[in-house]
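Our preliminary data section would be incomplete without showing what the modeling component actually yields. Below, a chain of 392 amino acids is followed by its predicted structure, encoded as tokens that our downstream tools consume directly.
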Amino acid sequence: MTYLQKLAADTALEFTRIYGRPPRWIVAAPGRVNVIGEHTDYNDGFVLPMAIERYAVMAADKSADGKNIIQIRDIADRIEPAMIDLSAPVKPSLPKWGNYSRGVVAGMLELGINSGGLDVLLHSTVPLGGGLSSSAALEVCTATLMEAATGKKINPVEKALLCQKAEHEFANVPCGIMDQFISVMGRQNSLLLLDCRSRETKLVPMNDASVQLLIANTNVRHELSGGEYAQRRAQCETAAENLGVASLRDATAEMLESAKDKMDEVVFRRARHVIGEIKRTVLAAENVRTSNWESVGQLMYASHRSLRDDYEVSCKELDAIVEISESIGNKGGIYGCRMTGGGFGGCTVALVKTENVEAIMKQIAADYKSKTKIEATIFVSRPAAGATIIKA
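Predicted structure:
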């Protein structure tokens, strides 16, 4: 039994216990980790995410009371259920966590996809707040449930964009397109090279079972006081203007170097990260295709150095895990490691040898705790499948 099958079976049992009957539908959507390509999305660049073996699962049946309300309960009893009344226009409401699903339901209703009232149980194992896209998993899971309950499928790109719109309009998070795209379109044993300008996707096979991705959550989240993300974005726009290009996707390292004297030093460094990271991401995809793991690892380390020094979005806890990984090195089974996600906390991602996983997890946990006095949460994943209907 796979991890997902067990998760679905456990969720079905819990649904039966809470609602007094078995579910008619069970659906799932994964979280994701970005292997490389950080802060490139809003610069029209490339990203290389993979779906992880951590999922939002929903078990559901038609409402027992016949009311035109979608009731979503979380498997953790202490969390307030989200109620979505389909007989009135769907608007953001409380509890706040329900807005991700509300936005999706509103989008589906606009397309004429109406499931009617549902009793739903949600069980998500995507860690919250670690930058692994628990929100996109919840959105895509909700959309997949609406598809299952109505028998109406929508085009995968349209589905991902509908979920992104839900996050923008109902949760007020101006996210890029990566998270929803990979949750919808992920494939087992493949990474997804996503062109954020054209929205074109290419599957990048990663069939070699001798490697896995190890994700370590620092369990720190440094509060950002001065709108650092918005500031970085503005600096990238300034750099593009200075270079006379529509976005940094169109710039080269040579163009940047020749304009150095005319640019603010910080803006120059921000652009150097983005231009280099776009190139590293395309190269990494080529090296994954040919199972050249040492080269992929070196690109991951280079990405981290650039994010730390040029983009300045790392923190001492993320740096600590990357340093521990470098000290373990190829001999100990780690090809490369970098921070992943927006930065200032959250997770690192490392490319590791499957045979060394247990020893690596123990060593990172111990060394990180001795350096920071914090317990890291560590797990490994192979590239997982995207959203799926488990029971229809």
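Residues 333 and 353 are 5 Å apart (CA to CA). The chain is about 40% helix and 25% strand. Preliminary results of this kind motivate Aim 1 of the renewal.
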